[in-house]
Amino acid sequence: MASFVDRVVLHVSGGHGGHGCVSVKREKFKPLGGPDGGNGGNGGDVILRVSSQTTTLLDYHHSPHRTAQNGGPGMGDWRAGHRGETLILPVPDGTVVKSRDGEVLADLVGEGAEFVAAAGGQGGLGNAALATAKRKAPGFALLGIEGEERDILLELKSIADVALVGFPSAGKSSLIAAMSAARPKIADYPFTTLVPNLGVVQAGDVRFTIADVPGLIEGASEGRGLGHDFLRHVERCAAIVHVLDCGTLESDRNPLDDLDVIERELAKYSVDMSFAGPDGEVVPLNERPRLVALNKVDLPDGKAMADMVRPELEGRGYRVFEVSATSHEGLRSLGFAMAEIVQKARAEVKTAPPKVAPAVLRPRAVNEKGFTIRREERNLEPLFRIIGEKPERWVKQTDFTNDEAVGYLSDRLNRLGVEDELFKIGANAGDTVVIGEDDAVVFDWEPTMSAGAELLAGPRGTDLRLSDWSRPTRAQKREDYEDRKAARAAARDELEAERRAGIWTESSRRKEWAPDLTSEEEAEGDDDYESER
What we know:
Layout: E1 7-13, E2 46-50, H1 58-62, E3 65-67, E4 87-91, E5 95-99, E6 104-108, E7 114-118, H2 127-130, E8 149-156, E9 162-165, H3 172-179, E10 197-203, E11 206-212, H4 227-230, E12 239-245, H5 255-268, E13 290-295, H6 300-315, E14 319-322, H7 331-351, E15 372-378, E16 381-387, H8 389-396, H9 403-416, H10 418-424, E17 432-435, E18 441-444, H11 474-500, H12 506-513, H13 519-532
Parallel strand pairs: 1-3, 2-4, 9-11, 9-12, 12-13, 13-14, 16-17
Antiparallel strand pairs: 1-8, 2-7, 5-6, 5-8, 10-11, 15-16, 17-18
Helix pairs in contact: 12-13
């Protein structure tokens, strides 16, 4: 089982907002108590927070789905629903938050740094909050909005000042153990170190951290070995120390070839914008200050190899230190050289002026509508799509099983200017209107749905503009009267024609239809016909 995870995909969901309540005050001696429905509570947020007690993303590797608590629904007697509890997810220091597309959303550095990964949904208003002087007793409430839901990528990049890089078994973990109080696993076989190790070094008055990057081999930047997974831990380091194994005199490797291979891999690795210097630019790994540590000089072959390659390395411009993790030879001078580079990098960060953009306050434009309408075509018929934060949010808050709530939505859209804009772009009655992009709501536009529902009398929860009831005009009444009169005249003419043709009694017709009737049955039928007349 893995004990160290530095990259994971996390599925986060904010809590849903609670629905508003529809309630009317019912109390003795108060027949007109008025609406008392409370508001729904907001859903909880999902927040990532840096914690010093967390060093890995292993918990999110096993449980990648995290959801905050939903808000409670409103209740009668003006009782608001409870707010959903915020879900705090602790992450290690140096965690970079990215979207699924690779966009950097946050760089969490420092104890207590936070990022809202998924915001909770807004709670709906109860009918008490929707009451006005004209709409005294609303029979509807607003629905709560669902919380934000998305997938994010968490990448851990170690917070270290100096990175130790080199081939497997070069002695990086041994150097950390010798220079600090860290106790990494050390063995005599390659790829002993499977996770980055951190150690704290004290050199005079300067205290800094060092980290080893395991598994660097040729082709690491392209995915070979373990280096591709751990190169990101070098991005935050101010200096790089090449640890070269000098105990390879009788093998086919030599320190100079190892250095060239590691340099090529560092040059191929592209640093993203999650690490930026004081000037806002990213410094490539192969252009950062570098030192060379010739390790294992306590061995006879190691000392001979160090004497052979030292002039060549110094000729390339490197500062070279002959060290031994076993005898601690040269570690003090190497530590002070690291501290010098770290102190210089910290001074540049402190003296660099902060790049903070001045706050610009821009008032809302007079002609800003807050929405856009796009004309489309579907099945050779015109379609008008309304896009905007307010219209889309209002649609989510509407209970479409309640006619009064639909009428209230129509009033809000009309006040926003949606109906006027539809007229301007040539929409006609009966055209299809869609609000939103995904999970959109489709309407058949009816221009007569204008504002003023609070002026129309009717039972709570209904809107007369949405019913089929209409009061006929005088001309319509006269037309209906003439139609009924003509129908009666036509019926009388048909009966008169039948009488003159001799077909004017039921008994005669019954004889034609049923010639086998007896005289008693025929007499009984005649009596029934006469009684009906």
